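## Example record

The block below lists the input lines for one assembly entry, exactly as stored, with component labels intact.
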Amino acid sequence: MEHFDEKNTGIEESRESRSRRSALLFGGAALAGLAMGSRAFGQSSAPNDNDILNFALNLEFLEAQFYTLATTGMTLDQAGFSTKSGSGTAGGAVTVKANAKVTFTTPSLQQFASEVALDEQNHVKFLQTALGANAVAMPDIDLMNSFNALATAAGLGATFDPFANETNFLLGAFIFEDVGVTAYQGAAGLISSKTYLDKAVGIHNVEAYHAAGIRTRIFQAGAAAQSASQAIAATRAKLDGTNTDDIGVSVSGNASTIVDCDSNGLTFARDTTQVLSIVYGGGAAGKGGAFFPAAMNGTIK
Amino acid sequence: MKKLPKLFTEDLSRRKFLAGAGMTAAVAATAGCGGSHTKTNPTPTPTPTITDADILNFALNLEYLEAEFYLRAVTGSGLSSADTGASAGDVTGGMAVSFTTPAIQQYAQEIANHEQEHVRFLRKALGSAAVSRPTIDLTGSFNAAAMAAGIGPSFNPFADENSFLVGAFVFEDVGVTAYHGAAGLLSDKNNLAAAAGILATEAYHAGTIRTLISQLGDPYLGYANKISALRATAGGGAETTLDGSHIVAADSNSISYDRTTDQVLHIVYLNPTAGVASKGGFFPNGLNGTIKASAS
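Predicted structure tokens for the full assembly:
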């Protein structure tokens, strides 16, 4: 627990050092990144570390709710995790079908799902502790209409229940994991505190481990699941405006495509605007939609 | 990836950055909470100046190793001379694995492609500052690692596809921890973005390899965990024993571990003894570049 003190110290240092290091931060590519970030929330000032960590916290709430519901049938609140803000504001509502617990038939997949649930719960707790009083509350989260809308957009049918069976669970998880990887990668360059950068990179890695576990199992699940992952990846790429920065699970030449990366073997980066467009299902910044029907909480939303 | 082309135009060698005891200590102090209890290697002694080029060259050495391992496993031959530099060292060992499971061969081919791409990417980014491939041993190293880990007197990761997965396991989590540790040392945001992109790819690889080995079970799972224990001894803890509920290697906050360059050197040199280590294991003549000897 003594480590938490270090983190809190780190956040204070980051605020002070930011002004001292502004010349460095505003040079070159950093400026480009910050410009992209500022566009997302319609103000001219650059996001500070709290803004970025809160942006990440919103995404972790989403992931943690999904995996906790899939493995236990309970929401975070029901499972004993706080969704309140650092100042005590209550968390938002979760829209999900009744009895969301997935009926797992493969013990190793159930184990892995529980591991991911634990990781995402830990990420929520870690960010809440790091942010302290600045932590945002959980926003409203929709895990029902969102999947239906994305399934429609991806051409997978009018409805999609990610809790219906193991394959659907894998595809539901697939929707989040690679997005988390790209979001953390895009945000890494915006973080001014070296301590938080180190932690963000560490979470980024864990999301990539998760993504690989999910994608490897989709590969093993066969052609139908692979095909669905490709449709979802294409939809994500369309939503973020590039049409190119996402690759589903497949075989290309004689190689698998487990890793979602570019021709240099580097995973893709998305700026906050692109991430919002995906999790909002194309909904307008500040308004929200899909997984966050009332938008995220915090300054980047 | 629109931010990356700028990487190629940067003069890396000019981007000096003080990576002395202060910063490194800060990174080490905040390293994995779960792993920190078993960290044995102290913070490196102050280094005068470490540039981004030094760090990217350190990474390039590791990518050469991974590329040679995977390319030889899937094709029987390694990197082409165009990708290894003017004064490339020799590579000992390695042969095409007789894959019997198409999926495993496809995973191997994918990872080989990525490691080759990483070599090319880093060499291009570094330009004339890129170091050549160091001398690499893929035979004696695995035998020594097997002996040190208690697996047996010898281990051939090219013998069959399951042994190949264990061989891959030796590298992948190390790459994740190495890039994680190095990310905070990079001063240029473009380089940081590139490193973050490479390290996430390494984490995907590690996630796949760990998933497949956990599905295989023993004896391969046992071998992997003996290797993990050896890495923990040589590299300051920072390991999560692999089983069906621990596919991810991360600390108690579910944040991946990082390692200092010293800790990584101790692992790839297969030298768990604290102190100066400058060569051995996978790199019989040491790494090329300025980061090649552990300070402690």
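The beta strands of chain B are 91-92, 136-137. Residues 189-216 of chain B form the longest helix (28 residues).
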